[in-house]
Amino acid sequence: MRQPSESSVNATIWDSTTFYRTPNLKNNPLKRPRSCQNKECQKVDRISNLPDPIIQHILSFLPADDAIKTCILSKRWDTIWTLVPNLIFRRECSCSQEAENFAVFVDKALMHYRSPKVKKFLVEFEFTECFKAQVDSWVDFAVRLKVEELCLEFHREIADDPDYYYLPNFLYNNIPAEKLSLRFCALSPNKLKQVSWMSLKVLSISYSWLSNEMIKNICLGCSLLEYLKLNQCCGFDQINTNFSSSLKDLVVDGSWGPEDKFGDFVITIKGPNLLSLTLAGYMHRANYMLLDVSSLVEANIGYRMKSCSHGCRSNWYSAHRSVLHDLLEKLQHVEKLTIGTWCLQILSISEVKGLSSPTSACKYLTLNKKINKWDLPGIASLLQSSPNLQKLTINLMPSNNFEF
């Protein structure tokens, strides 16, 4: 969200009375149009006549810089934004100067925020180590205001950039948040041994390194955790949810295996209390194995394996067909099953080769695939192996996999 250079609402401008410099009313794009000839119509400002809590609720859906810009509308709007329940700070540009301006903008916005509590606090920009102290202060601010949903979602222009945001020590204590989302954040293995997120119900971790022990400690330290998502994480080969009786929904969206174990690296999942399991995204040099998922009601196996050259596709299929077959056998009891593009292609080849799908108790089957004639054998195999099927849903989604 690049600030236009000619704008009178540049985030770096500050004075003692308003957040932004007073705008030029002659060129102000927010100036009320005079197209209405009815004088009574011109006098009516229905939005400004709304109660403050409703206006604040509306503004809470906007990024913070857009919400703050409303302070130039009138004196009444001057401080309305300071009580919005959600604070959303986003900066997509990777320019270092704009990142510095963004950090200054967040600092100043928090100085003027007057609400005693914040419902959602989100900060997203390209983090580098020089912003560590400032981000720590923002997180401390959100925790002190008893934040309900905390989102630290950083991004980077270079994938192997070493600048991860290391969570401050106080964040491992009993924070009030019920939802926590971390992207390109580094977690301390030692701190996770004593982690206490007793209010946390939803946790999402993206692009981070996690060991088996760290995942175990997260489950142990989150007694109310219901939903766990691991997105493009690496470092583990086991997800054991036995340590969390409350965890019901697990999402694994892609994972990275060691470079020297292409196709031989297996991630085992143990979840006797899980009700929903999603395996999505690209799997790099790794496969899945389900050990105990007896309570599952819903499963989505929409993951994809990295494509290969034409010359190795036959061996590639043979290597992964047994993995998919084993997954379907472990999911025979689920009532709701979703199949994605890659899995459906494997099933189609298997059917042509005379290898049918395992029998399923599925009642509701969803196929996420733009159907073509090569998918028909796989669909037929699924239908024949699902005698209890009551509803079939086909989402015609474009494929990003190669066609066999």
UniProtKB/TrEMBL annotation:
Gene3D superfamilies: 1.20.1280.50, Ribonuclease Inhibitor (3.80.10.10). It comes from Populus alba x Populus x berolinensis. Residues 44-92 form the F-box domain. It comes from the Eukaryota. Pfam families: F-box (PF00646), LRR_At1g61320_AtMIF1 (PF23622). InterPro entries: F-box-like_dom_sf, F-box_AtFBL13-like, F-box_dom, F-box_SCFL_complex_component, LRR_At1g61320_AtMIF1, LRR_dom_sf. This is F-box protein.
